[in-house]
């Protein structure tokens, strides 16, 4: 591993915005699908786990919570490993960890063992894939980055639409142990996705253009494994605080919507179909939102577009808490899928726009670490509320209030605390009417004003200690 090519992301390499970047995008699509859909998809096994181990809803909710906390909280560790070994080897090892965790979980005899195997080991493996994939996507795309982020984020609803029904089939045919074992084998595909993450290399200069001094090997300055300078950026701090509040309630509805439908008296098949509806709508929402975010008049204001998406999501939760039948839950899943897709497509695009390409690896690691605490207490707290009230209405109301509050923090924080940079006035060139006429007629490559010619002649004559006053050279 130590001899691997480390993709430091050299500043002299321009993002290709295509080419091999499309293969990288396909790998990011699969990684994002597993990372975000997996914690929700395994919720179909919770009822059987409750019966086998004799635990409550809040106890099983810890499985998804620990998994998400590892996905977020190990951000600094992932960035340190990426800066040390490169994205490709880290992702391939992460795929092995993700698969190993689910395979070991199939032999668990207590809920605590599932916490460690599915939550910690599989969560760490997915984290070692998810964050490096975002770094590589940021390096391969610049002008098309909003679209690339939207297409990559679409992996989450696609996999959610497939994994949720598949989980029910596996549970019915093989039980939760056989289902965990098969899902562990599927996670080995993360290793193949990691192999696609080829490091960007600077373009090679022709032999004729190489200077003799270029043969001397220059010592590169040591790169920091984790840079905390991003905390000096006021925009980054506002984003980190808002995102930490948002994830308290963002992942609660997808985890509890199946139980909500079953609580209203509907069959498991119909209840699981709600996640498929949510994922199907989410699938089209993310690329569409990526295209909109790339528009010229939207991209400079993508922070406020992101805040609107968060308000949309929070209000949907608040209205959905009043659902009393299956039709209401279907409508809720449609609007939640739209808003959830908008948030998923914009969250990392906004962070990239705030901190830039060079600071993004450290920024995403630190943001995810801050979000991990909120993710760790979000779903279990909702489970506690459910156990105490026996009502899903309060669970969805609290989740919606948290997401709405985060939108207000982001929107008003940027509006009142971030100063707009004044536009620099364009430099005016002093020229006579005759010179302006010549400028219009001559090509740009040959433009030169009289003041520039005079300065050139003065410098040339001063070197020879002579002043030429010939009519041919004087202007």
UniProtKB/TrEMBL annotation:
One of its GO terms (cellular component) is basolateral plasma membrane. Keywords: Cell membrane, Membrane, Symport, Transmembrane, Transmembrane helix, Transport. Pfam families: MFS_1 (PF07690). It is found in: Basolateral cell membrane. The chain crosses the membrane at residues 20-39, 60-82, 147-166, 178-197, 236-261, 273-295, 302-320, 326-348, 360-379, 391-417. Its main location: membrane. Residues 21-418 form the Major facilitator superfamily (MFS) profile domain. It is a multi-pass membrane protein. Gene3D superfamilies: MFS general substrate transporter like domains (1.20.1250.20). InterPro entries: MCT, MFS, MFS_dom, MFS_trans_sf, Proton-linked_MCT. PROSITE patterns: MFS. SUPFAM superfamilies: MFS general substrate transporter (SSF103473). One of its GO terms (molecular function) is lactate:proton symporter activity. PANTHER family: MONOCARBOXYLATE TRANSPORTER (PTHR11360), MONOCARBOXYLATE TRANSPORTER 4 (PTHR11360:SF27). Belongs to the major facilitator superfamily. Monocarboxylate porter (TC 2.A.1.13) family. This is Monocarboxylate transporter 4-like. The gene is SLC16A3.
